[in-house]
Specification:
Distance between the termini: 10 Å
Bound molecules: zinc ion
Structural class: alpha/beta
Mean pLDDT: 89
Helix content: 40-55%
Largest sheet: 5 strands, antiparallel
CATH superfamily of the largest domain: HUPs
CATH topology of the largest domain: Rossmann fold
Strand order of the largest sheet: 6-7-8-10-9
CATH class of the largest domain: Alpha Beta
Length: 511
Amino acid sequence: MHLRTGPSLNIAATLRYAGTVPAKQTTGLRLYNTLTKKEEVFEPIKKGTVTMYTCGPTVYGRPHIGNYASFLMADLLRRWLEVSGYEVIHAKNITDVGHLLHDRDQGDDKVQKQAEREKLHPLEIARRYEQEFLEDERALNMLEPAYRPRASEYVKQMIVLVKKLLKNGHAYETDDGIYFSVESFPAYGALSGNTLENLSAGARIDVKEQKKHPADFALWKKCVGGNGAHILRWLFATGEVSTTEGEDPASGFPGWHIECSAMSSSLLGEQIDIHTGGEDNIFPHHECEIAQSEASSSRKPFVRHWVHRRRIQMGEEKMSKSLGNVLSLPDVIHEGFSPLDLRYYLLSVHYRTNLKFTMKGLDDAKKARRKIMEWMEEMGSKESEEGKESEEGVIARWHEKFFDAMNNDLNTPAALAVVFDFMTLSRLRKNDLDQSGLSAVKDIIEMIRHTFGCFEPEDMDVSAKVLELLTKRKEARQSKDYHLSDQLREEIRKEGYEVRDNGDEQELKKL
Ligand SMILES: [Zn+2]
């Protein structure tokens, strides 16, 4: 077994669930829908296949664990749909242009701002943080989506959508951009519970914007005024990359919201089954996505199930970059935890409750996870003895209990309670099990393992120290410090792993 840390690797793909599930259990998932504000029985548009879109990161810094909590919820949902027998076509984007500070229409592009700080080209910044993000995702054992579109590579499709909205009267042009007219779309506010009245109360329109309503939002920003120095730019007329510099109203860049509308319809079709994101995405981002997508298509609703992860709190406060109380994955590793301890912790609470993150909670999660893994190993190595009774009937009931918990709006705390009870029972009865009883237990273990994705055998679960050494070594290689890189290779060897370089990737092999 080996683990690589480069971008093209997919550890998780090798762990794809191949178990069999009784047909009666392929339906019955009840999922809370943010749009209708109630739990609904999940049924995909096309029998057996689920299309799912996840708003990915804006790559201008390392995402914090609150961001990962939302990506992990999406990963859990996808895994559960697979265990339930569906094929899931999952798209998760990378936003590398157009996401302005404070998620609004004014201010700098987050990626460009970071590029100015680090004196690099915006795309260098975007690719660097994309790489870090992919490494974190892999360490957290998230399954690779079918598509990872980058916004900058879908600008032509975005322009097509904007032109459609201009033509059908849902958008209008001003001196500094093209805006969506919220008054032209009566359902605006349905997802977030906002109304045009409360959105306009106290809001003011920047004179440069010439917006008709304060809640109108940018579909396209021209390279004029504050955006005159924007580096990544395209010609609105043709969608080609623009080579102009400085002020140029013919060149511009997309607004953040139009990116997801264009990428999801290009890859998954005009109507999709599930759209996920963090609670903070509901407004304005997802509200605007609905307006753009539904105003440009006859397929409604654009998304059949909206699923949002509640935010993570640090004690009583919201975890956010602006409050300066964020933790990244390397911070957690530095404290002696494995990425999969964090994965267990973040998934052990229901996705619609606010987790109050504490180190004590993480430590308890680590211990609980170890207990489950020890049990899995113990049962995995158990051989059956002849002449003993089968307990299949009893075991099937535990299978059902686990399904019931997960089908109840992904009730992971209840599902884990079932796991702990089943652990006690299977240990008590392990000497009574015949071949088929034992293999039924092992099947359930495989299902639990695929669902949660954090009980991988220990040789896959590289220690926090090794992961930290790998991160340092990657940085040393990037700055061409080969002496340090060789020293780190030796340190990794002392930890029991050989590291090999394959292009930009580091491959790890147990010695
Ligand atoms: Zn999005």
